[in-house]
Amino acid sequence: MPKKIKLMELFSGIGSQAKALRNLGVEVNTVGTCEWDYHAFVAYDAIHNFAKPVPDDIIKMSKEELLDKLGKFTISNTGKTPLAPGILRTYSRDALARFLTAIRRCNNFVDISNLKGSDMPDKIDILTYSFPCQDLSNVGAFHGYNKGIDKDSGSRSSLLWQVGRILTENRNCGEDLPEDLL
Q1: Cα separations (Å) of 93 from 33, 36, 51, 137?
Q2: In what order do the strands lie in the sheet containing 28-34?
Q3: Is 34 an annotated catalytic residue?
Q4: Which range (9-13, 36-40, 126-130) has the least confidence?
Q5: Which of 76, 136, 171, 180 measures 20 to 30 Å from 130, CA to CA?
Q6: CA 41 to chain centre
């Protein structure tokens, strides 16, 4: 019997890599994700966890408790910029509960810039990453996204360099790098 692979998806979006592997017949155990756009990470949870209900411990949390827990994360509603301070307060308690559920259930590290190599799950078999590419495309350039991928460009595409940083930190913690980097 083939082994169930341990997958980590950076810039996970809705989890297309995990879904593609499953569609190919690969048994996947997604041990971590990293996505800051709440539209994407809530969809990821619904798709990969089959729209399971919000856990009881989260249902019992007050809006203030949910805001406190979610306040530890840099969340976006556009995939381009973080939510302005206080914006989460405008969301319903139910929406906040869904956000926290999706983060917890998918082991979502949320902000790639804050993910440390020491936080990575152990013994990952495959690491995938689909970093933002708007700054590299002709269409992106048409819309003014033309800063490129240079490490210090400040572009969203330059977030690719975070993957190298995380892997270096992970190796420096004594962890083996994933067998496959897709």
Answers
A1: 24, 19, 18, 38
A2: 28-34, 5-10, 126-129, 180-181
A3: no
A4: 126-130
A5: 171
A6: 7
